[in-house]
Amino acid sequence: MLSHPIPGNTEEVRFMRDPITHVPANYFINLPSLKEITLYDDEIATIDDYAFANVPSVTVIHLGYNNLAVITTHMFTGLVNLQELRLFDNVIHTIEPASFKDNTALTSVDMSMNLLETVPETMFDQTGHPNSLVFRFERSFDSRLYCDKSLSWLKQIDRTWITVGHIHTLECVGPGTLIGRSWNSLIIQELDAVEPFNRRNQGITDIINHPIPANTEWVWFQWNLITDISAGYFKNLPRLTDISLQGNRISHIDNYAFSGVLNVTHIYLQQNTLSEITQHMFSGLPNLQFLQLKENVIHKIQPGSFIGNMALVKIDLQNNLLQNLSACTFSGLHKLQELLLQHNQIQKIEPGSFMGATDLTKLYLS
């Protein structure tokens, strides 16, 4: 919680790796010399509108490695001198219109490694931008664009004042391809559009009543009231690659619940109430590359739970209740490169927990 008073002559504020979940309005006030705010690797999920409106002198804000999901229209209102904004490695899926309208001095925005599925046309307001702006958007397993007609504005308008850093690392999924390294050189090639199966935020309690078309590539059930996933629901979907079940109340998943969708590469189950990963929960997913399980209440992973997921490259288990890692918990995952276990209660790691995970280069336990 942000409750410590800040001296009036402060030029730089840093809160790093603290249990801060919320930034209230009027905390940053009467600080005429403040230039830089760092709220890095905390647990920030919400920021009040106008939270920074009383510190127009700020030029740099660092909010990387937090839990922000939505950038609201007035989150950064009043920051007329803001030049650099770092928002990488959150869970941002939505940017509301005109979110950066006041920030006419911006020269750099880093939005890498979030959950954005498109680049909204209303994100920036060209009016009043005297400088060039570098928009950094590096691909990760968590951030993949869905290339449909909503991106066509990128090729239709001249935006010489924006360049995109590392656009070549983007992966574009859906009815099109994304090519180029700046807004002006982006090319959207429209193919036969297959729209995502979108049932987000509709109060759904039972997915069995929502059959999925056979040609579906993406399934979105985020922010509903789903409590369990039954075996047999995900079947006969040969083109399906992504399943998003974020922000439900899922506490139970049948064994072999996903065994009928062999081509799935990404599953998002963060912000649910799973307490245990069973041995066959993810069986039948030979092409699964990324598994998002953070912010559940997982206290146990049965040995061999991922034995059939030989293509896994990244598993995110942050913010759970794990205390022990048994032998063979992650064994045999020869392609696993990144394993995130921060903010658990791990006291014991048995020998052989990572046996055979020869490509594991990033293991986070702090």
Task: Explain how this protein is built.
This protein has 366 residues and is mainly β. It has two domains: 1-190, Ribonuclease Inhibitor (Leucine-rich repeat, LRR (right-handed beta-alpha superhelix)), CATH 3.80.10.10; 194-366, Alpha-Beta Horseshoe (Leucine-rich repeat, LRR (right-handed beta-alpha superhelix)). It has one helix at 153-156, and strands spanning 12-16, 22-23, 36-40, 46-47, 60-62, 70-71, 84-86, 94-95, 108-110, 133-136, 145-146, 162-165, 172-173, 178-179, 187-188, 197-198, 218-220, 228-229, 242-244, 252-253, 266-268, 276-277, 290-292, 300-301, 314-316, 324-325, 338-340, 348-349, 362-364. The strands form nine sheets. It has an eight-stranded parallel beta sheet, with no helix packed on it. A seven-stranded parallel beta sheet has the order 1-3-5-7-9-10-12, with no helix packed on it. Mean pLDDT is 82; it is low at 139-143, 155-171 and 177-193.
